[in-house]
Amino acid sequence: MKKRMITLGSIIVVIILAIIAINQHTLEGNAKRELKEYLHITATVYNNGKNDADGVSLVLYLYSIQDQKMSEILRVPVDPGYPVAFADLRNNKVYFSDSVTGDEVDNLYEYNLKTKERKQLTFGKFLFNDLFIVDNKMITNVAPQFVTVTQPAIFDRTTREFTYLNPDDDDTWCFSLSYNYTTKKLLSLTASDSEMRTRKVTEVTHIRPKTLYLMDLDFGHYQPIYHTDQFEIRLTRQLDRNRILMTYDPFMGSSKPRTLKILYIDSQKVEDFDVPGIKEVKTFYPRDNTEGLFVLGRDANNQYGLFYYDMATKNLSNVFENYPLPKDHHSLVDFVYSMD
Known about the structure:
By secondary structure, this protein is mainly beta. It has helices at residues 2-32, 193-196, 199-205, and strands at 37-46, 56-64, 69-78, 85-88, 93-98, 107-112, 118-120, 127-134, 137-143, 151-156, 161-164, 172-180, 185-192, 210-215, 223-228, 236-238, 243-248, 259-264, 269-273, 278-286, 292-299, 304-310, 316-318, 329-339.
């Protein structure tokens, strides 16, 4: 009996050690798996190859930053006012906005890259400004029908329902929404619709007072971090826990090229942020490691394109330098940075 008990105990110990070893191996494997960086680049091309008489198609380019590899993963005819698109790499799908020809509102669509099936997900009248997926959660900046402002929302792809930051708030515009993979925070740039329409703004300053907020991915811990009425801001991105990059215009309608400023959250100090070789910024994203900055805009030669600025070497390069745009190219519309 004693021998059997010792044998049974030995077996149990071996099983426990095996389980521990498997778990340790799994943890090490997960730890070794590094997230890869991508750019989801939204562009349009002429359907007839030369002009928009026959409409345009949305093209989504996926750029692997580590591999420096560009690929066209979607080309589909659309008629949106301002197309947004994002690739769900884990599920081999692309999500994008589109509208009925002649309509000025959008709906959300899904394109399955394996089956080539296109599916409409929403059936209303929406305006989409930002769209991205983090931890399998779709985040968008959207305004539904009969609502004045766009605001952050989570879109459930199963129930096809939106969960808004504040469904009762029809005054606070969200002008810019982005996510930082290190801080795990969403950054929202906001302005009051009623304040934007005051005489002070429309006739005197031509500057819409803006407030920046940080919040969790589920919209928790919604906290203001900065407010200004001294200059115009259109886009914001979090560089790290204490620094925010934002576009700068002296006022609405300024003829001066749009540039960047940097905000230090702890001191509330704001300084110019120069990107050598860049004349004007349309949109931008910093890399998660803060080593570089991607900018869609115009360089010193007034060439419009997507550029990468290496903050260490101070070198500026054209992302499409080795990947010529097609002959039917119409425009580079926007891009989103992601890690997956």
